[in-house]
Structures are given as C-alpha cells and as structure tokens.
Amino acid sequence: MSSATQSIVIRGAQIVNPDAVFLADVRIVNGIIEAVGENLQGDLVLDGTGCYISSGFVDLHTHLREPGKEEAETIESGSRAAALGGYTAVVAMPNTDPAQDNVATVLFVRERGIEAGLCEVVPSGCITVGRLGRELVPYDSLSRVGVTLFTDDGNGVQDAHVMQRALTAAARLGVTLAQHCEVSALTEGAVMHDGACCSSMGVPGWPSEAEEQMVRRDIALVRLTGAKMHFLHLSTAGSVQLVRDAKAEGLPVTAEVTPHHLSLLDEMLLGFDPIFKVNPPLRTAEDIAELKRGLADGTIDAVATDHAPHAGHTKEQPLDTAPPGMLGLETALGVVNTALTLTAQQIAQVMSWAPARIASLPQQGRPIAVGEPANISVWNTTDVWTVSRHDLASRSNNTPYHGMELRGRVRHTIYNGQVVVQEGKALK
Ligand code: DOR
C-alpha cells in the first residue's frame, strides 16, 4: 500500500472542537479526516492516550531567515521546529535578504516550504519596499499571488501618511496589515524595558509609550480607512487597553502576544545576558497580568511565537550590541500551558483557530470532523519536561528557557495527511 493511501488512526485522545471536547478515534486517509468514532482500525496507529487532538497550531509570527541568514535558520529547519511544536502552518516574516517585498521572493519562500513539506509556510509581504518605511510594495501583484498579511516586522512604519496609504491599499484588496508597534525615535539605543531594573543597570531604556503611541495612531488610521489591522507582539498593559477599547468600538483590529511576554520579566536581564534581549522588550509583572487578562477576555486573539533565531556568534555579544530575539516554536505550548491556566479549547482557540482566521488560511484551524483537511496536532497539558538548547531542531539555540521545566508537550503532528512528528520526533 503506498503512503498516499495508507490510513492513519489516532487512538485514545480527546478531540477539541469549538463546540465540544470528547473522546474518539480519528482516521485519516488521503489527507482528509475520513472517520471519527470508536475502535477505528488503520495501517498506522498513533497513541493519543492522555492527549488532546486539535487542528494544528498556526504561528502568525515566525522568522525563518531564508533567504539571507541561513546560518541562523532555513525554511526547512524552521519548518521542522514548527512541526515539533505542533504547528501545521507558520507565517514567514519578511525581514529576509532580499526582503519579501516582491513576488519572486514570496514565491521562493512558499516553494521552499512546499519542498520541506513539514508545515504550510505562508509568506507575509512587506508593507514598504525594503521595510524602509517609504515606498509602498506592489500590493496588487502580491495579493494576486495570495499574500494576505503584510508587515514590516522588525520595523514599525514610522510615517503616518505612508501607513494611511498602505491601509487604503489593504482596505481595497481586503488584506490585513500587521504592525510592529515601535516609535523608533523613542527606542534609539535602548536594550530593555525602561523601568527600575534598567535604571539600576545604567542601560538605555525602552519606554512602554514607544509601543503605545503607535498602537494609538494606528487605531486612528484604521478608523479612517476601514482596513483590517493586526497588532504584533503586544507587550504593555496600555496597549492591551487601547486594543480593548478599539474592539469595543467595533474596529477591525486583532492582536497577538508572545509566550515570552506572558512568562518572562525585565528583571531577567539583571545578569546582562543577551538571551533575554528581545524587541519589544520583556516588561513588568503588571504588564504580564494585563496581557493574560487580555488573552482571557478576547482582546488579544492569538499567541504568536516571534521565533527569532540568531546564530551563536551574533547573539553572544554584549547586551547593547547583541541582536534582539529568541526562539519560540518548540517551546510555545509548554510555556503557554505553564504560565497560564487555560482549557484545551482556549489553547486551541489562541494557537490554532484564531490565528488561522487572521491569516486567512482555509486549510488550517478547521474542526476535527469527517471531510476536513488533516492538519492536526496531538498534544497534552500534563507531561513535564526540561528544555535543553541542545535538543532543538532549530539551527540556532537562543532559547531563554534552557534548563527550565515546562508542562505540556506535543506528541504527534500531522500535516497535509502525513505524519511529520511521531512520539515527539520529527520523521524527516
Ligand atoms: O526580537 C525581535 N527579533 N523582534 C523583532 O521584531 C524582530 C526579530 C528578529 O528578526 O530577530
């Protein structure tokens, strides 16, 4: 029997759907869920005991580094890290070299993702040419080849008029702009959150206001243009309140938070370890509490990793010169489940259903039901494991969680009907 016609059964897990959580076996044939029921038989049987089955996780914010920085990550190594983290789709951030501001680069990224075959690689497009904040990218041609999310991530679009024009193009095409909220005039030379720790360390601080000013401005521009706006990696209590108010007003805004902004504090930088340097910076306990509240009340729609690999020799520099960013894909479920008390449905909501909708991915975030595409993750909230930077599939090892104990782990990932992760091991 060829692998295309082989049937796969996941046995003994609880299915997590928006309307119900229930125990049942799932059988997959030819990339489709063919049966959901009791005592199903198959050519390959995967043990789901003690686990949940949901649609695969979808990461709205992954830096795959290819083309341009393959020493840090490739589309293949990043896709493998994603699959191990239970992801069946990742949105590839555009700060590659060349940047994803043109059709050829976008198609290259998508093709390399298909070749890797470990998850759906969804290229984002830039908002402006070269992410320089001046000239608009060719929105019509990028939208024609299927780009639905545009961002200059790594940079915020500083000029309000450029942003207004980009939003007008986005509204016309029905696509979404995702903003990295940072007023760069307020973050010049900054290495960490502008608070008590930063003052005691004598390093330049990054004020919350640098993020909130841009969130505030962009909400006003959404009101003006009617375009859909997604706020990347929110990190401050004030940002959460601004988005909450915008949603209450009925504006088409969505937002994400990273696992690290939900779990790590600015004080972790007291030892000057660049592993904790990230943009936006780690903040305070009050910010974390509000980010958690925002996730619980639906102000924040999704958890997104901002998986940002950096090769050892670049990251291991003094705090002021080390690049910002940390790995996220392989630890996301464990961090989220350890830092927050969420039900299985809430986890699936913020890690699969909502991000699939925000990125407009028809094959992702679907219910576990007959006839649906087999993009599936099997995971639990009970396994306790210790993160080791030596065990990661990413080409880089800049995880801030090395040596930490997490609860909750991915057991199997099925992408496009193929088992890509079995018993926590990547199959290719
Ligand atoms: O910490 C970060 N690293 N934040 C970003 O916005 C960009 C990212 C990167 O590309 O390394």
TrEMBL record:
Would I find Flavoprotein among this entry's keywords?
Answer: no
The UniProt keyword set, sorted, is: Hydrolase, Metal-binding, Pyrimidine biosynthesis
Q: Name one GO biological process term.
A: pyrimidine nucleotide biosynthetic process
Q: Name one GO cellular component term.
A: cytoplasm
Domain spans labelled Dihydroorotase catalytic: 53-236
Classification via SUPFAM superfamilies? Composite domain of metallo-dependent hydrolases (SSF51338), Metallo-dependent hydrolases (SSF51556)
Q: Name one Pfam family in it.
A: DHOase
Name what cofactor the protein needs: Zn(2+)
The family database entries (PROSITE patterns) matched by this protein are listed as:
DIHYDROOROTASE_2
**What are the recorded GO MF terms, alphabetically?**
allantoinase activity; dihydroorotase activity; metal ion binding
- Return the CDD domains for the record: DHOase_IIa
The answer to keyword Glycoprotein applying to this record is no
PANTHER family xref list: ALLANTOINASE (PTHR43668)
Protein name listed in UniProt: Unannotated protein
Q: Which organism is it from?
A: freshwater metagenome
